[in-house]
Amino acid sequence: MTAKQIGETRMASITCQGNLNIDGERLWQSLMSMAEIGALPGGGCRRLGLTPEDSEARALLVEWAMEIGCSVGRDLVGNLFIRRLGTQPDLPPVMVGSHLDTVATGGRFDGALGVLGGLEVMRTLQDASIANERTIELVVWINEEGVRFVPGNTGAFAFAGENTVEQVLADTDLHGISIGEALAALNEAGQEAVGGRPVEAYFELHVEQGPYLERAGVPVGIVTGTYTIKYFDLTITGRAAHLAQPLPDRQDALVGAAEAIIAIRKVGATYGNDGRSNASWINVFPNVRGTVAESVHMSCDVRHADPERARAMAEDLEKAIEEASQRSGMPMTLESTLQFGPIEFDPELVDLLRATARARGHKAQDILTVAGHDAIALASVLPAAMIFVPSAGGLSHNEREYTDPESCAIGADILLHAVLAKAGISEQPLKLAEVNVGVMVCSNGCSGSGSGFAEP
Ligand SMILES: [Zn+2]
Predict the structure, then answer these.
(1) Which domain holds residue 320?
(2) Which of 30, 102, 348, 369 keeps 20 to 30 A from 36, CA to CA?
(3) Of the residues 339, 371, 401, the one at which a domain ends
């Protein structure tokens, strides 16, 4: 079969479900209800990973999922799996997912759209009494944002086998509380093994978090791959002193940090539109009024669409920090911590998303993601792809982050039809009702189904 014929076959199979539509109003209402958890005065959300707000958001999702007969499971690191069982449950599942945690001053759509878009897929299938052949799993990965526990994408990386369960559970926040302790306190840890099982496809719907789709006037981005991102920790060592100390005698780590931040910014500025260089977190010690800073610890990164250019940027960054160290007269240590990309998403799934957008009449363009996502962390072990919808003004990680209802609905529409294309529609009668009964009668209030999934 030629590539053209394959494409035609896919188009045909998608078109045959053309009368199946998600409920955009319901999706929007769900997004707004979810946004009430951890709501901030400026219209955004604060649900740091593995905090009571994060847990409350998961509980609301579970409540909604139970209403449509899904089963619920959690793995040992707290990843949450909402399952709409297929008529062939032994086949590898089709996954959709994202995260419900936010940054400290986050928006209502980053992460939540992917999760609630997945829920809307399941609700739509339920309304239409469609039985999926493969099980569809909606996954909420833990600690995507990496604010409380550093770095982020903790659950997705664990699922991909990048970190052991023991390593994940031992990670601590700034107050010394481990992920294991946080999970236990919230009763969010489950019993399922982490990863290590086949997955047919993983789709993640997400807001773009940048300006390109809006500027192009295109409602959908088919994410073909990622920028290369290289993260670093920078330590600047000064000397604490009273502010009575004359300026020439000081080794002020905060002044060194100012030099470093400007130097970091200049690195990216020389790499055109595709260059990004960032300093985004800083910890000053002792950080008290009246005392010259003794040390500064900060995170920085460089990003570029071209992996070679990203590598060159990392070298430029090292040089820039060396020069900043000489100018300020203080030792600066730059330590490479983590690298994302370059990753190309699964070509077949990317093609499927393009074909789905076409078949559904949505204008779409290919795009790379500049931001890190769970899909990127997972792409090494399963076929993954992403759908982007525009962020108004390119704003994200901002309380004013906004994606309009129509764009959210378009994204969920493509998600629905791509998921169905991979999960398959069963000719067998819907078995979900039987599963529902199993869930409803579960005597201890658990949400396990007959498939052996069970809450701890
Ligand atoms: Zn996100």
Answers:
(1) 228-339
(2) 369
(3) 339
The reply to whether omega before 151 is within 30° of 0 (cis) is: yes
Residues 156, 252, single domain; the answer is: no
Please answer whether residues 65 and 122 qualify as being in contact, where contact means their C-beta atoms are separated by less than 8 angstroms. Answer: yes
Q: What is the pLDDT along the chain (456 residues), one digit of tens a residue?
A: 333 333 333 443 444 466 899 999 999 999 999 999 999 999 999 999 999 999 999 999 999 999 999 999 999 999 999 999 999 999 999 999 999 999 999 999 999 999 999 999 999 999 999 999 999 999 999 999 999 999 899 999 999 999 999 999 999 998 999 999 999 999 999 999 999 999 999 999 999 999 999 999 999 999 999 999 999 999 999 999 999 999 999 999 999 999 999 999 999 999 988 999 999 999 999 999 999 999 999 999 999 999 999 999 999 999 999 999 999 999 999 999 988 889 999 999 999 999 999 999 999 999 999 988 999 999 999 999 999 999 999 999 999 999 999 999 999 999 999 999 999 999 876 655 444 433 332 322 333 333 333 332
Look up residue 190 and give its two tokens. Answer: 């489950």
Cα separation, 285 vs 426, in Å, equals 61
Dihedral sign computed on CA atoms, order 388, 389, 394, 400: negative
- Residues, beta carbon < 5 Å, ion ligand 1: 110-111
DSSP conformational letter for 106: B
Residue whose entry in the numeric block shows the structure tokens 């946080």: 182
Residue 120 assigned as binding residue: no
Which of 23, 36, 210, 280 lies closest to 128 in space, CA to CA?
A: 23
Q: Ligand 1 mean position to 374 CA, how many Å?
A: 8
Do 153 and 63 lie in a common domain? yes
Tokens of 288: 């008290």
Distance separating alpha carbons of residues 221 and 174, to the nearest angstrom: 37
Ligand 1 mean position to 11 CA, how many Å? Answer: 30
Residue 297 known to bind ligand: no
